[in-house]
Write a structure and sequence with these properties.
Blueprint (H helix, E strand, L loop, with lengths): L20 H4 L45 E8 L4 E8 L17 E7 L4 E7 L7 H21 L10 E6 L6 E5 L3 E2 L12 H17 L2 E2 L8 E4 L2 E4 L6 E2 L26 H17 L12 H4 L3 H4 L14 H7 L20 H15 L8 E2 L4 E2 L1
Antiparallel strand pairs: 1-2, 1-5, 2-3, 3-4, 4-6, 5-6, 7-9, 8-11, 9-10, 12-13
Helix pairs in contact: 3-4, 3-7
Amino acid sequence: MTRPGSTSEPPEGGQTRREDAGSAARGGRRPGRDEPAGAGRRGTNGSSPGAFPAGGDPRREPATGRADSLTELSYVTTYGEREQLRIRAGDWEEPGQRPPSRSVPYRRRRVSNPDSNQEFVQKMLPRDQVTADSCDLIDNEIQIGLHLLRTIGETRYPVELSRLVGYDADAEEPFILLAERGEPAGLFSRKISATKYEQFQVSLFRALSILEAAKVVHRNITPGTVRWNDPRVQITDFQHARLSGEPAGPAPSPRWAAPEARHGGLPADPAADLWSAGLVIVQVVGGPLPPGMTGPPDLHAVGGGLDRTLEGIFAPTPAGRPLIELFMRDLGALRDFVPVGAYPGPVTMDPRFLEGRRRFAELSRSKSRTIPTFDTYSGDRS
């Protein structure tokens, strides 16, 4: 089935968008609270920014142990090669409470490879939902996933971000394959013990610092896209993400969006993700937000010490929100902070990876597309 805006190979070189380093490095543009934000810029744990924690490689996941029959799954790898994976698949989960119509109504299922003992999540778009808009969102999620892989590197890819494994964007029912952990944070509202409130916050702020260092703005941080896999969170669903400084439309989930992001028209700014992350933390600690709430919550009333750890996160303008490292400093977690500049250039990849993306770029230019393609060599949209 040929669908609008289809893609079959990964983009060349992973430079999926024009990168504006000036917009990502906030410097003095967003002042801290009472003191400069210089501490912790180099990190204190002696490890590479974004490196695996002591738990090991997040790509190795436990098998489901289901006794279902085996089948073959054909997909395009992040190297641009067609691969057959022997899998044992769980049942398809229907979408729950769907986000606004601007998001892809994926069905999802767990799939495991009994040979490698790895487990992944397959997210599929039903054929009756295949439209130009939904396919553009899948393409965007693929391109952001490839950008993150090339910017951070596979060997130090963090557990705090879901990782693109493969996809088939030209299938009759397009899908992506991800290494994804945990359950939606919304399921843990008031269910995480008080001793773990700060762990949740530290892990979420660490994830945001990694995204900012990689020049990515998620734009849809909600209790559904943030997952909890004790003792860490994982940010998933990058279909609405943009590179820092890129033009951005209205946020897909206005209730969770920063005021400046609700109507669109402004460049994507990491400070908008901070506001949304603050609301997710408030719900996990204090319970569901009041219906119709559009302003900042009363942190004193929520409790859990959030009036201290989230001070300034709901400032009405992006410039008024503190740097991420200040939140992590107050949580005593500067060792987990990943500073802007941690990923100064694309990680050197296997030649197969780069060749697959070169072929993708050529294919994209030959198609009539509803979203821009990217020129890897110039870094500009074409």
